Amino acid sequence: MKILFVEPAIFLSAFAMTLTSPLTTQYVYRRIWEETGNYTFSSDSNISECEKNKSSPIFAFQEEVQKKVSRFNLQMDISGLIPGLVSTFILLSISDHYGRKFPMILSSVGALATSVWLCLLCYFAFPFQLLIASTFIGAFCGNYTTFWGACFAYIVDQCKEHKQKTIRIAVIDFLLGLVTGLTGLSSGYFIRELGFGWSFLIIAASLAVNLIYILFFLGDPVKECSSQNVTMSCSEGFKNLFYRTYMLFKNASGKRRFLLCLLLFTTITYFFVVIGIAPIFILYELDSPLCWNEVFIGYGSALGSASFLTSFLGIWLFSYCMEDIHMAFIGIFTTMTGMVMTAFASTTLMMFLARVPFLFTIVPFSVLRSMLSKVVRSTEQGILFACIAFLETLGGVTAVSTFNGIYSATVAWYPGFTFLLSAGLLLLPAISLCVVKCTSWNEGSYELLIQEESSEDASDRAC
Fold this sequence. Notes:
One of its GO terms (biological process) is cellular response to 2,3,7,8-tetrachlorodibenzodioxine. This protein is mostly helical. It has a single domain (7-37, 56-222, 244-458), classed as Growth Hormone, Chain: A. 78% of the residues lie in helices and 0% in strands. The chain is built from 18 helices and no strands. It has helices at 7-36, 57-79, 81-98, 101-123, 130-139, 144-158, 162-216, 221-225, 234-250, 254-286, 294-318, 324-343, 348-354, 363-373, 381-410, 417-425, 427-438, 443-462. α3 packs antiparallel against α15 and α7 packs across α14 (363-373).
């Protein structure tokens, strides 16, 4: 008997993703540090390998390492851009016919292959530049954006009421926060106690268990309910894919189409800033004047991941007294405040306090996805989440590349500039949401609008 709960797969995937990101960044940082100069890291040291005295030659050396790591991250992200875009869009779009499990399985295979390669890279001390090739190959199988998009579509398929969608998506974000918080908190101890090799092996093992669960235990309601036998050539499949995307916007009324585009713009611009700035936090914390070690970086990651929990609680409480759009405003403006505080953080206490305004950072992600799902038909959910995942993949890679490039160019004269820039960019989704509000956003009215359009389409077909 198949299980219709995707939460265990999300749990394992979130653990692997959260542990992979800081481990890979710090592994590359140490490799570049050791290969650039004659300085080595002391694995049992309680302080970071960081020099605060600007007149010291080590200070100039660590600034050079920061630039090299930022540029390497840029190269690695760009290498997976094109294959990631193509695979994400195709896999999630065809999930409406072939089931949500297919993109989950393929993206899990790619993640497992990448983690195994990280183990080999670390154990045999291969050139770390080979990470670029593994990123490029792994992106063909889809990435974590593909996996999350399939999971959210899987959940929406099971939700009948609109409020249930918001709460269920918030529950998933809460689960993500719980896992990422605990994993982030322990990531520094993984490095210190087990080293990089064993840590990467644990990641590979968790992804293998995740793949087994999806293959043999997870059911697929879309595939089970689908009775049509799709037999078409590859070219016809691509044509049908893009045709369905085109019809998603064409079949909508003018007001609904405008709202759909505006909400997509809001979602992607907010995603662009939050995802783009995320890797900079670790580099910022490793550099002077903070000079954090791997344990403090783990504490910072855990505190940042607490926003998943607080965002879930916020959505759960706010949903009884305010609309979705007001919750999104709260998340955007508190995140903006956190960016400004981070830009001026010069001590450990200030950096921890700067994390406090990020408590509702995840709220706009959950709320905007829910708002988008409410303005499309139930038969268009798969293609909608394919569009979202495609834009998130494009925006995510572009954002990380852009912010890494900006940080590399500005770290020497003002490391906090990138955070001030991100705070300014958050005005874009805020303004976009104001326009949505001015169109008299009302959840119930758009539900009725969709029903009216569906009945009109049915009558047209009957004629």
